[in-house]
Amino acid sequence: MTLVLTRPDRPAGRGLKPHLSPVKRLALEHGIPVEQPTTLKTEHVQDLIRSVGADLMVVTAYGLILPPAVLAVPRLGAINIHASLLPKWRGAAPIQRALLAGDRETGVCIMQMEAGLDTGPVLLCKSISIRDEDTAGTLHNRLADLGVELLLKVLDDLERGTATPRGQPLQGVSYAGKIDKSEARIDWSRPALEIWRKVRAFNPSPGAVSNLRNESVKIWQGATAGTKGTPGTVLEATSEGIVVACGEGSFRILELQRAGGKKLKPGEFLAGHPLLVGECFRNCAACE
Q: Which domains does the chain have, with CATH numbers?
């Protein structure tokens, strides 16, 4: 490896000190040069990329547009590790969109990059099942392991000249738009199944959020339940779970967090914040 490109350090923590990404830390530990341009469109940056003489560029979750001039630099082009079964869920947030949609499977595709958004020929693809207990975090980790496996196979194929790129089907195209924090707000008038998917899709970030007693509360784990009531109202509050009525069915909260607090199981939460049956979680028209 001759060069690592990663996004600029971002401020984090109370002191807002620059935070090194895991990619940068690992590269520095192994003595690999690191550059952090804010854009790849300048002649200076493109000359830098040309100067390393790389045969191949590997891209994953980079977040910057690679212009055609950059894609054309390496002898073997650029390949991308994409966490979906292309052409489904092209774009920025394929893992979250798959969970929100209730997909039963996903996977990883290693594709050749071109000017279009995740439109290039696929070199290798493999699917996995999405488990009921999967969150965006656990699914990301499983797909990352799969991505490493497929990438190593593709690198071998490219070195041997046996790689066989295949064009993506014209049918089944969908787009995984970037996640907006506003999407994480729970609307209790929606079906419990939809809320369950949202909680999983936004764990670990940004966290599905509601409002209780004029305070923001993030909900990290839960399960659907069959009881009914006015959407947003508490139907049950025990150590076994806080059951909240939804537009269809109800949702049993199994882990939640007040603003500035720790993640708590229902029993721990109720010990310090008792809830009464009939109290209302907000972010729902029926509760406003």
A: 37-176 (3.40.50.170), 181-287 (3.10.25.10)
